[in-house]
Hints:
Blueprint: E1 2-7, H1 23-26, E2 32-35, H2 42-51, E3 54-56, E4 71-76, E5 79-84, H3 90-99, H4 106-115, E6 124-126, E7 133-138, E8 141-146, E9 160-166, E10 171-177
Parallel strand pairs: 1-2, 2-3, 5-6, 6-8
Antiparallel strand pairs: 1-9, 4-5, 7-8, 9-10
Amino acid sequence: MTTLGIIADTHVPQRMPQLPEGIARAFRSVELILHAGDVNKNYVLEQLNRIAPTLAVAGNADLFRSGLPAKRVIEIEGKRIGLVHGHGSWWLYLLHKITDLPTYNKSRYRYMAYAAFMDDHVDAIVFGHTHRPDVKTHRGVLLFNPGSVAPEYYETTGPQIGLLHVDADQIRTEIVKL
């Protein structure tokens, strides 16, 4: 079994000056960290790389300056895992900023994450963007959003990260509050 650290929406220094304490402890047994975007500054990835090798994608707050890809597919224990921020294109992002007020459509963001990998035959998709934890299976694909590390904890009381436990037979999720 391989354990991956899952993190999203750190927004350092945009919304907080540094990563919260407890990340190194929570990720002490992971072999790889996946960051689902809105990193903001590349030194955050350098800090995470000191804990474990880290792969990241660009979020809507990273585009045009991070050099990160929009999505990735990695293979662990024979399972294909997609990594994306989940905001869709810039046009969709702006449209949803307007149309989501005053409600929030969780299924829309799940679908955008799923749609990013329709041709990639993945077993799981890790995404962020919503700042809300989410675990759902759609058409046999596990969708996992650990929630936010940065403020704006819509459904939690503070920062959190996730763990993805992967082996040849299954993929299991875990949310860890910091």
